[in-house]
Amino acid sequence: MNRIENLFQQKSEKILNVYFTAGYPALHDTPTILKALQNAGVDLIEIGMPYSDPIADGETIQQSNQQALHNGMTLKLLFEQLKDCRKTVDRPILLMGYLNPVVQFGIENFCKKCQEVGIDGVILPDMPIAVYQEEYQATFRRYGLLSIFLITPQTTEERIRQIDQMGEGFIYMVSSASTTGQQTGISEEMIDYFSRVNRMDLQTPRLIGFGITDKKTFEQACQYAQGAIIGSAFIRRLQQADDDLTGTIGNFVRSVKDEVVPN
Q1: C-beta of residue 163 within 8 angstroms of C-beta of residue 169
Q2: What are 189-235's pLDDT values in tens digits?
Q3: 243 is an active site residue
């Protein structure tokens, strides 16, 4: 069974997914961050594939993408960095990015590399569902790779149900129409949206992203979904990290999910 599917079978609440950009703060930090996130008790790890035009992301993640590219991060190098990750990391791992670099790398080659290094799923916000179903889904499935789709407050019920019927891992529930890092807290408007989706009685688990920054917002989001995703707030903490990157990561995760005991 795919590790993402297994996670949601084993755990149904307070699932914490943390995003970071590969090659940031330094080019070869990816394996260190992965292991530190697992040891701190994160349930699911999302690695950003740096791209020059990350349209869904706000200033913080855009800057981390630019710095990672400046550092020399490439998709080929990322797979090299991840080739031994499953020796120390057993958490589900997602790659998040944009369709163009994946197509340039080659869809089948990309999926094959994901399988080789132990990637469980991919989030490509600019990939249309129809294109995925018609052109890529068979290849993704052949290599055991799930495609995670996003919904927003503007997503129609028809599209939400279409994504739900696909049942690929979980639904990434974007909390607002803004880019990442722009929201501070959970608004009444967001709660109305979360409640509306809850009433749809979907079969696929949901994680809420955008605007989740700390323990308070994480716990608020967990009232309306199986868990939440933290990205920009974690990137900002990495920006402030001193030489003790592992300690910084552990302190951040425990500040969000303070019941966690390190492995």
Answers
A1: no
A2: 989 999 999 999 999 999 999 889 999 999 999 999 999 999 999 99
A3: no
- Out of 5, 29, 57, 168, which one is annotated catalytic? 57
pTM given for the model? 0.93
57 labelled catalytic: yes
Q: Which of 5, 46, 164, 168 is catalytic?
A: 46
Sheet containing 121-123, strands listed edge to edge, beginning at the edge strand earlier in sequence: 146-148, 121-123, 93-96, 44-48, 15-21, 227-230, 206-209, 171-174, 150-151
- Tokens standing for 21? 């950009």
Write out the two tokens for 140: 């993704």
Alpha carbon 236 to its chain centroid, in Å, reads 16
User: The tokens of 22 are what?
Assistant: 């590969």
pLDDT in the model for residue 177: 63
Query: 10 Å Cβ neighbour count for 60?
Result: 20
Q: What CA–CA distances, in Å, run from 13 to 37, 40, 79, 114, 227?
A: 19, 18, 31, 27, 6
